[in-house]
Amino acid sequence: QVQLVESGGGLVQAGGSLRLSCAASGGTFSRLGMGWFRQAPGKEREFVAAISWDGGATYYADSVKGRFTISRDNAKNTVYLQMNSLKPGDTAGYYCTGISTGSPVFLPQTAYEWNYWGQGTQVTVSS
Questions:
Q1: DSSP one-letter string for 50-100
Q2: Phi (first) and psi of residue 88, to 5 degrees
Q3: pLDDT score of 60
Q4: How close are the terminal C-alpha atoms of the chain, in Å?
Q5: What is the pLDDT of residue 38?
Q6: pLDDT for res 53
Q7: Is 70:51 a contact under the CB 8 Å cutoff?
Q8: Alpha-carbon distance values, 22 to 5, 16, 39, 62, 82 (Å)
Q9: CB-hemisphere CA count at 13 Å for 8?
Q10: How far apart, in whole angstroms, are the C-alpha atoms of residue 61 and residue 75?
């Protein structure tokens, strides 16, 4: 069973940056598609970004494109989300997720299709 543990959330002013990390254990990390979702109070969990097994393919929600960067280090079993130019609208709980399929680039934007989830880390952006 894969366990995911996020870190790096916090309080930041608008325009600032944060880097989230997600450490994986219990599985073959290099065969997991990885992603980040976020959920604000009263809203559904929404897709933020995803990355293929080898990091060669990345996908972003339109709302974060050009500001956020997803990356992974398979030697460290860790995926990252670098968030720049943060806005108050980015305030949410951020969740790391993994998917185990036969395809290295199957990275759905719907939460229910992902197999593994972390507990989440809170990001709060003040105006």
A1: EE-TTS--EEE-TTTTTTEEEEEETTTTEEEEEE-S--GGG-EEEEEEEE-
A2: -55, -30
A3: 98
A4: 40
A5: 98
A6: 93
A7: yes
A8: 5, 20, 17, 22, 12
A9: 18
A10: 27
Left if phi > 0, otherwise alpha if psi is -120 to 50, otherwise beta: which for 110? Answer: beta
| Both tokens assigned to 23 | 């450490």
pLDDT along the chain (127 residues), means of 10: 96 98 95 97 96 95 98 98 98 97 88 96 97
Tokens representing residue 51 in the block: 């990355």
Find tokens 């790096």 and name the residue: 8
The closest alpha carbon to 93, from 40, 53, 43, 57, belongs to 40
* Alpha-carbon gap, residue 47 to 105, rounded angstroms: 16
pLDDT value at residue 102: 79
